[in-house]
Amino acid sequence: MGKKRQNRVSSVLRSEISRIIITKIKDPRIGFVTITDVEISGDLKEAKIFTSIFGSQKEKEVSLKALNHAIPFIKNQLNSSVEMKFIPALHFILDEGLEKTDRISRVLKDIDINQNDNNY
Question: I want to staple 53 with a disulfide (CB 3.0 to 4.6 A). Which of 26, 28, 60, 87 is the partner?
Answer without folding.
Answer: 60
